[in-house]
């Protein structure tokens, strides 16, 4: 909700852009460039960790899930600091600069790791022929163990054993399951810089992400029916940037190296900063700092934020070395066995949401409390959605690299990270259609309520995985699925996303008590953080063993992905049906908000 002073500034009858307040155009562009950087880098991250640093699926998925979780956890703090001290505009500008620095540092990956395999108590180097250090491996790239001067190709078996194949095609060695141990010699300083860079991006995004959405909400007065449509347009800017980044960054990385693809994310963040810095004419009066007595609070907030970067780095190193939970430990044992980040997220989620409810019960009216309660219930279901949806950057990207025929009508081969752009293309194409559909249904009184839309999103994201599983039944002899099936999953997921994400951001601004709207936007991103961390855990379920970064048995890889995708798809559809049953009582808590 807007405050009375904000409402007086709302350009309800001033110059418009696409029928909306003109400042929306600038915010659209700023968010577009920020999302270019985020999604462009995200498209490369999992492959960067598994191919360049050779960290393995499990460790890489843990880092990926931890990073994306931090990206959505830090807005809880960034939103609060902006509400109370900095103001939204200063927070956005500071966040943009920190993120740019992180992206530039991320590009300093150095030389690729050198793989080795150990068996019989001896460490043997792995020679990679026709090596290409980029997102798309060379078509004829092979890995061979150098055993007493002989190159032996590596072939995994379904029981987990390994055959080492001599140049004449015979089996030179058969290694029982667990006998071969693989690893890599890597530049530990460069890996540390990479983890620090990810930490900087996460901290910067905490200041940027919740506060630019808050400024969008301030453009509309209470009761302005354009608000939902405005957020949908803003969401199209997110996905336009996503598409551009997921298209451009893999191309740059393939042709000019990882540094070019990752560094381009930093360049566009500087563009976003400049657009916000020189926005006084269009955004004057919106997101300004609150009146605070004494010294400028930025003098302590900015240094504290920079000091938070090494703290996040510690969380990443802890993630890398966290053991798998012990079988049969039970739920409590599972929680105790989580890395520090997992404990932090569970504690923050479990404490913050009830604390917000207690505060709203004491500080607000009964209706305001019930509206806040409805928002928080939907946040919980939101975590489930994002746990599945965010497989795009982790397990689905590895699946695309390993088990998808990425040929586009025989004209060219799409790189694995570039397949993520199917989602952005789907959003850009379908967002106007979905917006028009909601408008038509609203005029007839048939528009689904927000809880029903959320349940449709959950059912849809689960159905997308089952659609891809169906496609695996038509895999070729090379155990690769046609690209169209993966594109179909992303199309279904795009429809599901449009049922939740833009609706959710708008819902928060409408259901929140006015003076904590920034905090509630941060809590919304906290639910996303839980989903992102859950996505990392799910991706670890789909771990496929590799040697020197190469899958040794594509059939076993395909079977692993099919089993995980089937399970999570079915469970999520069930969760969506539960929410559908609960939608009516939740709607009553919303007191007419739609």
Automatic annotation (TrEMBL):
Is the Protein transport keyword given for this protein?
yes
SUPFAM superfamilies listed in its UniProt record: MFS general substrate transporter (SSF103473)
**Alphabetical list of Pfam families matching this protein:** PTR2 (PF00854)
Membrane association type: Multi-pass membrane protein
Q: Transmembrane segments in this chain: where?
A: 61-82, 94-113, 189-208, 229-253, 259-278, 299-316, 336-359, 371-389, 422-442, 454-476, 482-504, 516-541, 561-582
- A Gene Ontology molecular function term of the record: peptide transmembrane transporter activity
In which broad location class does this protein mainly occur, judging by the first location in its UniProt entry?
membrane
| Compartments it resides in | Membrane
Alphabetical GO biological process terms = oligopeptide transport
* InterPro entries tied to this protein: Dipep/tripep_permease, MFS_trans_sf, POT_fam, PTR2_symporter_CS
Gene Ontology CC entries for this record: membrane
Keyword set, alphabetical order: Membrane, Peptide transport, Protein transport, Transmembrane, Transmembrane helix, Transport
Family to which the UniProt record says this protein belongs: Belongs to the major facilitator superfamily. Proton-dependent oligopeptide transporter (POT/PTR) (TC 2.A.17) family.
NCBIfam families associated with the record: yjdL_sub1_fam
Q: What is this protein called?
A: POT family proton-dependent oligopeptide transporter
UniProt source species: Novosphingobium sediminicola
């Amino acid at each position: 909700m807007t405050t009375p002073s904000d409402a007086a500034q709302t350009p309800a009858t001033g110059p418009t852009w696409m029928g909306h307040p003109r400042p929306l155009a600038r915010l659209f562009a700023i968010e577009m460039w920020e999302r270019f950087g985020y999604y462009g880098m995200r498209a490369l991250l999992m492959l960067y960790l598994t191919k360049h640093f050779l960290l393995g699926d499990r460790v890489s998925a843990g880092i990926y899930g931890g990073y994306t979780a931090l990206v959505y956890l830090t807005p809880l703090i960034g939103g609060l600091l902006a509400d109370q001290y900095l103001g939204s505009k200063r927070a956005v500008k500071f966040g943009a600069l920190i993120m740019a620095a992180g992206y530039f540092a991320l590009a300093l990956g150095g030389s690729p790791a050198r793989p080795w395999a150990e068996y019989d108590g001896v460490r043997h180097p792995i020679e990679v022929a026709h090596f290409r250090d980029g997102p798309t491996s060379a078509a004829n790239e092979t890995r061979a163990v150098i055993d007493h001067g002989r190159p032996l190709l590596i072939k995994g078996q379904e029981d987990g054993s390994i055959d080492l194949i001599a140049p004449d095609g015979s089996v030179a060695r058969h290694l029982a399951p667990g006998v071969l141990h693989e690893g890599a010699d890597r530049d530990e300083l460069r890996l540390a810089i990479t983890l620090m860079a990810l930490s900087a991006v996460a901290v910067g995004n905490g200041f940027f992400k919740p506060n630019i959405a808050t400024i969008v909400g301030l453009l509309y007065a209470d009761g302005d029916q354009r608000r939902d449509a405005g957020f949908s347009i803003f969401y199209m800017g997110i996905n336009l940037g996503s598409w551009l980044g997921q298209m451009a960054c893999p191309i740059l990385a393939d042709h000019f190296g990882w540094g070019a693809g990752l560094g381009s994310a930093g360049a566009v963040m500087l563009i976003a900063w400049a657009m916000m810095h020189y926005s006084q004419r269009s955004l004057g009066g919106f997101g300004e700092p609150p009146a605070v007595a004494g010294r400028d609070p930025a003098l302590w907030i900015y240094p504290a934020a920079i000091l938070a970067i090494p703290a996040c780095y510690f969380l990443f190193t802890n993630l890398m070395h966290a053991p798998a939970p012990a079988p049969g430990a039970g739920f409590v044992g599972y929680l105790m066995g989580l890395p520090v980040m997992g404990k932090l997220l569970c504690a923050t989620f479990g404490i913050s949401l009830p604390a917000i409810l207690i505060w709203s019960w004491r500080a607000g009216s009964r209706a305001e409390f019930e509206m806040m309660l409805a928002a928080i219930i939907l946040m919980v279901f939101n975590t489930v959605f994002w746990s599945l949806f965010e497989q795009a950057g982790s397990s689905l990207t590895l699946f695309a690299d390993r088990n998808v025929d990425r040929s586009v009508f025989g004209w060219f081969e799409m790189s694995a990270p570039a397949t993520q752009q199917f989602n952005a293309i789907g959003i850009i194409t379908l967002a106007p259609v979905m917006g028009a559909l909601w408008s038509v249904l609203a005029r007839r009184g048939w528009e689904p309520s927000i809880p029903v839309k959320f349940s449709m999103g959950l059912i849809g994201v689960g159905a997308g995985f089952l659609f891809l599983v169906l496609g695996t039944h038509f895999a070729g002899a090379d155990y690769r699925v046609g690209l169209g099936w993966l594109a179909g999953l992303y199309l279904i997921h795009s429809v599901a996303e449009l049922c939740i994400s833009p609706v959710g951001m708008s819902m928060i601004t409408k259901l929140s008590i006015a003076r904590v709207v920034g905090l509630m936007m941060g809590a919304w991103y906290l639910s996303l953080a839980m989903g992102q961390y859950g996505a990392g855990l799910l991706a670890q379920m789909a771990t496929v063993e590799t040697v020197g970064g190469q899958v040794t048995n594509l059939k076993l890889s395909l079977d692993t992905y099919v089993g995980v995708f089937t399970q999570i798809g079915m469970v999520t559809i069930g969760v969506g049906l539960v929410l559908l049953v609960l939608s009516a009582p939740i709607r009553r808590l919303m007191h007419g908000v739609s």
